[in-house]
Amino acid sequence: MSSTPARRNWFPLLPPLMLLGVVVGLICIPLNIVDKRVDSLLTEGFEFGIGWLALLPLIVMPVLLQLQQRLMRDGAGSGIPQTVACIEDAERSSALLGLRPLLMRLVLWGLAASCLLPIGREGPVVFVGASAVWLLRRVLKGPAKELGVPLLLSVAGGAGLAAGFNTPLVAIVFAAEDLYKRFNLPLVWTALPVSLLAALVAAFGGEPMFAYGELTALMTAPTQMLMAMPVGVVGGLVGALFSGLMLYATRKMTPLARRFPIPMGLLLGGGLSLMALGNPRVLGQGSAVLHDLINTGGPSSLPEALAVLGERIIGPVMVLGSGVPGGLIDPALAMGATVGTIFMPLLTGHDGVMGVVFGMAAGLAGATQLPIFAALFTLKLCGSLQSVPGLLVSAGLAAMLSRALQPKPVYHALAEQFIAGLNPEPHANQSAPRR
Question: How far apart are CA 289 and CA 183, in angstroms?
Fold first, then answer.
């Protein structure tokens, strides 16, 4: 990827970049509204029970897989591998981006999320950003020529994250750390107006400033770091397991879901419904689980907490591995918070909300191998500035341990799987007749 020199005068590029941010923010508003309503429903359901809603996965999974196979094939998949494929080769944009695949992905995700399936939303919102670049390609002709399409796609993908989670700074880090795979001045200067406008416009339905309140760390920095170490180790192990299962399930289950959408949908949806009848915390993207852990302490016994942890690992893998659009940030945060709730008291003797905070960073870093992104994201959600030393220790340890066990970060590995599917083997091309 060639280096793009930094401009001295950015003002001529601001109008189209600001328009891009506004469009990304507007498109993400419906996703944020769905997320809020589902969280409210589940938060109440954890306290009073969800009744027949536990059967929704059994009903919706066959419908989703059938839709993906018959009518909305271009909308299947997370959205991040498709974006990465376009960043690596801009010529793929005309086939992978645009209004049609965008609408398909949003419909599939909206149906899945509304029916309480355990999926995140960073995949669809990142895809929103990339598709907005394609839809506005004439307006963005100047920035594309000056900065390059890969940089614009990376920035817009990060802006989608900013619009979905009200996190403009974290979105810039994600664009650099994961999508563009480098930090430079052109990316930072380009991302600032796009991410800020996207977050501002989408704030109507986005996360509040601190989604889970301002959680205070009543510990000194050395104590935090000591307490965060075992959480980071367990979070790294669990995160590596989660990402490894995700890659394996995607490789094995997606072809089966395409060939047998109804039977696979009944099997996967039935499994989720059975788990939900036992404990509804398997449902939803994960935000409601985090609210429950912070405000009520979560499950009342260790066996129940371990069961929730297992379900928060297996549930998202079952859905996302079958090709349903979604993401793993929310599930990873919920999984990590459960790890912190269980293992910080067990391993350190210290009980409190900091186990949730350190666990969130560890779970996200272990799943994505993005430690700075995970620490900043957790800090943004919890508003706990005093916990920075513990966050960095838990996220750093988790990411390093995950990297040792899982050589490729999950987003990169999923993108490689997707790109390999776009490029058939040479011998297969040679034997195919020309049309």
Answer: 34
3-class DSSP assignment, residue 303: helix
Mean pLDDT, residues 362-380: 93
End-to-end CA distance of the chain: 34
Residues 233 and 377 in one domain: yes
CB atoms within 10 A of CB 265: 26
**What's the rounded Cα separation, in Å, for the pair 237 and 292?**
24
Say yes or no: 235 and 182 in one domain. Answer: no
- Residue 432: what pLDDT? 40
Which structure tokens are listed for 397? 């340890």
Amino acid at 179: L
pLDDT at 430 over 60: no
pLDDT, one tens digit per residue, over 237-294 is: 999 999 999 999 999 998 999 899 999 999 999 999 999 998 888 898 888 888 888 8
Determine the Cα–Cα distance for residues 143 and 17; give it in Å rounded to an integer: 8
Which amino acid is it at 80? I
Asked if the model's pLDDT at residue 424 lies above 70, the reply is no
Range of the domain at 329: 221-417
Task: Clarify whether residues 34 and 71 are in a common domain.
Answer: yes
Q: What span, in angstroms and rounded, lies between the C-alpha atoms of 69 and 260?
A: 9
| CA nearest to 215, candidates 340, 36, 383 | 383
**Do 411 and 263 belong together in one domain?**
yes
| Report field, pTM of the whole predicted structure over 0.85 | yes
Q: How many domains does the chain have?
A: 2
Q: CA nearest 167: which of 373, 401, 403?
A: 373
DSSP assigned state of 298: S
Q: What is the CATH number of the domain that holds 70?
A: 1.10.3080.10
CA–CA gap between residue 177 and residue 108 (Å, rounded): 28
